[in-house]
Amino acid sequence: MKRYTKNWLEEVLVTLFMEAGASREVSETTSSILIEGDLLGHHTHGVKLANGYLRDLKSGHACGDHNAMTSKEISSVAALVDGHYILGPYLVQKALERSADAARESGIGIVTIKRSHHIACLASYLQPFVEQGLMPIIMTSDPAVKSVAPYGGVSPVYTPNPIAMGIPSRVQPIMMDVSMSTVTNGSVGKAHAEQTKMAHPVILTNTGLASDDPADFFSDPQGSILPLGGQEFGHKGFAMGLMVEALTSALGGFGRKDAPTGWGASVTVMVINPTLFSGQSAFLDETDHLIEACLSSKPVNPQYPVRMPGQAGLSRRDKYLEQGIPLPNDVVTELQKAIDDSSLKGRY
Q1: For residue 197, is it within any domain?
Q2: 111 in helix, strand or coil?
């Protein structure tokens, strides 16, 4: 795979977003978050998304004007934001910064966002806040999409509804980004486009059978993605998925009942400041102890020792910053489509 530098990708993406009508502030933040997804190795939720974002900007479904955002102050630590479909990375970054300010002063901050555009890879936001000794938490759902069926049902009702969280440590920070479904919409779509099978039977056919064929998801009637836990323990993933729905769409007051169309997201972010609870040293002593115990656990296979959530991504990030980011062919194809529909056509 051809490698691309972070700086080159930023220059190209910022140009593309600004030409599509986004402000520089929105363009720079969105570009940075998308590239961070690829730096961590999440290629389905990185630069590949840019072309879809650009199409929505040009069609008027997405907004690139950061001044369109409105907010309601609930208290010194809580706010509700109406994103008016501004590109999601900008909205989430600003919500996290606002929550972090509140957390530094009061221990915790929370912002709920309704009517956001898509927010990309949740893990992409975590590291800067973790490095400040804070715990960021992000949850999201898309009220316009139905891809996961409730446990015991076959008709899809909600989305994979990921939760991300960063946990500081002196040893190895924990950066988790986990969907409440067995796999994501993006991974099913990628496998379907490549005409390959899923690694496991994570699809539920419209007749209620587990399948590893993504075509069974795109059937008529539509199939679904199994909740986290699969057919055996999916009641747990189902419950967690409902929790995310309540903490995003319900808390924001805009969701599935409103039957929105087009790419979007309901989001809630929180930031917790451990220093104002147990104190920084006491907190880090505990997380360090836990992480060291996990890393020293006897592995099932000596060739594959235990690794913490986010450990592989952070290692990959360091390597890609030094050597360049290897973008898969499907990502390059989408990026080239975006370039060919801009003033950059023929230059790259």
Answers
A1: yes
A2: strand
**pLDDT at residue 348, as a whole number:** 75
pLDDT, tens only, 232-268: 999 999 999 999 999 999 999 999 999 999 999 999 9
Cβ burial of 17 (10 Å; 0-12, 13-18, 19+) is buried
Half-sphere exposure of 102 (CA within 13 A, CB side): 22
Residue 190 in tokens: 């990628």
DSSP 273: -
* Tokens representing residue 169 in the block: 């440590």
Strands 108-116 and 78-82: parallel
CA angle centred on 181, ends 178 and 183, rounded to 5°: 80
Residue 14 has, within 13 A of its CA and on its CB side, a CA count of 11
How far, in Å, are 13, 17, 38, 96, 141 from residue 35 at the CA level?
9, 14, 5, 18, 22
CATH number, position 117? 3.30.1370.60
Domain holding 191, by residue range, is: 183-225
- Its pTM stands at 0.96
Q: What is the pLDDT of residues 76-104, one digit of tens each?
A: 999 999 999 999 999 999 999 999 999 99
Domain count of the fold of the chain: 3
Based on the domain organization, do 28 and 163 belong to the same domain? no
Alpha-carbon distances of 249 from 77, 119, 243, 259, 267, rounded to whole Å: 19, 14, 10, 12, 7
Measured CA to CA in angstroms, residue 230 lies from 49, 156, 218, 227 at distances of 28, 14, 19, 6
Beta bridge partners of residue 181, listed in sequence order: 227
Q: Based on C-alpha coordinates, what's the Rg of the chain? A: 20
Residue 1 has pLDDT above 90, yes or no: no
Q: What is the mean pLDDT of residues 167-194?
A: 95
Clarify whether residues 28 and 154 are in a common domain.
no
| Average pLDDT over all residues of the chain | 97
Residues 23 and 128 placed together within one structural domain of the fold? no
Q: Is residue 299 part of a domain?
A: no
Provide the pLDDT for residue 347. Answer: 81
Residues 262 and 219: their CA atoms lie apart, in Å, by 20
